[in-house]
Amino acid sequence: MTKKNNWLPTEKNIEDYSLLIDMLHAQRQEFDILSKKKSDGPLNKMKIKMVNRVIEPLNELLKNEPSHKYLDVLNEDDLPTNSDVVLIISQYEKALLNFKNKYFLFDKNYTDKYGDPRARWNTKENPILEEGQEDADEDADEDDEE
Fold it and tell me: Which of 4, 59, 137, 139 has the greatest number of C-beta atoms within 10 Å?
């Protein structure tokens, strides 16, 4: 693995991503509607907890990403508004898109029935080897045997 990719998501991280991104999109749809009706309407504590149950694990998933420092969770004491939630969710959606673009890659060793490379998650358990990396790994194995 190259130095630029010291950290890779685990299969569990990808499972969490798949579950939580759908939940986040559903929340976004609901808050878009609420925001159009009453953008400055404060959220009740139950809604804040529901949103945080989705974004807190996403915040943990994204802790190794550059966008992490710009992601916030909702504070119950501040009573955020519907438009605040839309803004926060949109930031998470963009950070998750960047996460997918970074770790869901074409793998020349993972092909369809026509031999064309397919995209898959680059994970710690199943990393995508970069061009020339196969040789470097074999050389490292040979050095270990000596």
Answer: 59
